[in-house]
Please model this.
Amino acid sequence: MPIRVDAYTASGIATGVLSRAEHLRDALEGGASLILDRVDWQTLGERGVRQLGEVSIPVDDVLIAVGDDELTGPVHAAWHSIRLEVGPYVIHGELPTMPGFDPNRALARPTGEFVLLRDVRVTLLADAASGAASGRQALVNRYGVERVRADIMLGFFFPGAAIDGVEPATA
Model:
């Protein structure tokens, strides 16, 4: 079954389907490029959408990837509200940690370039009123995150990001 993907980059949004039968995380973590078929491209700041066919996006250029594949993640996770600023976007969602997770004592650090969020809503940072896209889950490039607001200290998930006070991450 084809997996529909919205790939958010610094310059625009590519909406298409994965070219190979695999999970979105595998496509992002397993290669140098995310290859999408039947792509509609919308440049930020423009209203029109262009149809491009197949597109290869370098994985490092993907800031947020929202897919409609089966929800993945830890089975017995505690989910924490989080708000992230990633390039020109704001994403609200929930990030999983294992039960009993204590950020001050955690020895295990996240691995890989992308962090899973569920129940996501993505808006433009400069124009939140322009509309929001939502999805069941998203993978966020943790090295592209510039600001974090969460209900517990999750800063080490996002190296280099500014950390707002630990507080509920509501809109």
Q: What stands out?
A: The longest strand covers residues 33-43. The mean pLDDT is 84. The chain has one helix and eleven strands. The domain at 78-163 is CATH 2.30.30.100 (SH3 type barrels.).
